[in-house]
Design goal:
Two copies of one chain form a homodimer. By secondary structure, chain A is mostly helical. Chain A contains eight helices and no strands. Chain A has a domain of 112 residues.
C-alpha cells in the first residue's frame, strides 16, 4: 500500500467519525501518521481529498463486481455472485451518507457525486449485459431485460440490508429465489 | 380543497424555489395568501410544516399506487400500470432532494424521513403482493419474488427517468419488455 492509499483509508475513518464538515486535514494527518505538508503534496484541500477517496472506493467496487463474474460460465452462479457482491460492496457507498449528513454539499461536489454515480450505473449495465450475452445463448435475447431486473433487485436488496437490517442469510435466500425465478427454473 | 391543503401546496412551491434553509414561513404565507397567524394555527414551525407536507404527498402517492391496481384482474395490466404510476409519482419524492440540498437536516427530521420511507416500502410490498395473490393462481407461489423484482426495477426506472432523463416513451417500452419477461410470455 502506498502513502496516498494509506492517507485515503485513514480519511475514510476520520470522515465517518466526525462528518465532512467537522473534519480537519490535521485530523486525517494524525490518523494516518503523516504531517500536513505530506497531505498537501497529494491533495489540494479537503474536498479534493474526499473526491479522491470516493474515486478510490469506486475503483475497488468496480473491481469486486468484475471479479464476481470472472471465469464463470453459468448464469446461475454469475447472477448470484454478482448480487451478493453488490449488496456487500454498497456498504461503502452507504457510509457516505453518514459522512455527508453534517454538511451542505457544494454544487461542484454534488456534481461530482452525480457524475460518479452515473459512471457506475453505466459500468454495471455493461458488465452484466456482456456477461449474459457471453454466457448463455438461451438468455441472450433477454439480456437487457434481465440486466435491468438484476440491477433493480440489487437496489432493493441493498435497501433491505442497509436500512431494514436484513441478515446476509436472509439476503442470500432472496437472491437464490430471485435467480431461480429469472432463469425459469422454478 | 381546504385551507391547510392550500398552504401545503404553496409550501411545496416555495421550498423548491428557495430551499428549506432559506424559506421563511412568511414566504409561504405570501404564496398561499394567508397571514402568519393562520400558518401558526396549523403548523408549529417550519420543520412541522415540511413534515406535514411530506405526509400529505405520501398519502397522494399511496392513493395513486392503490388506484393503479384497482379493479384490474390481469397481471399484465396491473404490473404495467403500477410501474408507470410509480415512476411518475416518484417525481414528488425527487423534489425533496432539491429542497433539502441547501440544509443540514436535523436528526429528528432525518429520523422522520427514514420512518416515512420505511412505511412506504412496507405499504408497496403489501399492495403488490396482495394484488398478485388475488389476481393469478399461476403466479401466487412466486408472489414475493415477483414483488421484489417489480419494486426493484421500479427503483431502476425511477433513476433512469430522474437522473438519466429517459423519456416516458422509453420507460414504457422498458416496462412492457420487463412485464412480458416476468410473466413468461416471451
Amino acid at each position: 500500500m502506498d502513502r496516498k492509499e494509506k492517507i485515503l483509508i485513514a480519511a475514510s475513518r476520520v470522515f465517518r467519525k466526525y462528518g465532512l464538515n467537522k473534519t480537519k486535514l490535521s485530523d486525517i494527518g494524525r490518523e494516518s501518521g503523516y504531517n500536513s505538508s505530506s497531505l498537501y503534496y497529494y491533495f489540494k484541500n479537503k474536498d479534493d481529498l474526499l473526491q479522491q477517496m470516493v474515486l478510490y472506493d469506486i475503483e475497488k467496487i468496480k473491481k469486486a463486481l468484475k471479479i464476481s463474474l470472472q471465469d464463470i460460465n453459468n448464469m446461475k452462479s454469475g447472477l448470484k455472485n454478482y448480487l451478493m457482491t453488490r449488496v456487500e460492496q454498497m456498504d461503502i457507498i452507504n457510509r457516505y451518507e453518514e459522512m455527508l449528513q453534517d454538511s451542505v454539499m457544494s454544487p461542484p461536489l454534488r456534481k461530482f457525486f452525480r457524475k460518479i454515480e452515473k459512471e457506475l450505473r453505466i459500468y454495471e449495465n455493461r458488465l452484466l449485459e456482456n456477461f449474459i450475452l457471453k454466457c448463455s445463448k438461451k438468455h441472450a435475447k433477454d439480456a437487457t431485460v434481465i440486466t435491468n431486473l438484476v440491477l433493480g433487485v440489487s437496489m432493493k436488496l441493498t435497501v433491505a440490508r442497509m436500512l431494514d437490517r436484513y441478515s446476509l442469510d436472509r439476503i442470500e435466500k432472496m437472491v437464490d429465489q430471485t435467480v431461480k425465478f429469472l432463469l425459469r427454473e422454478s
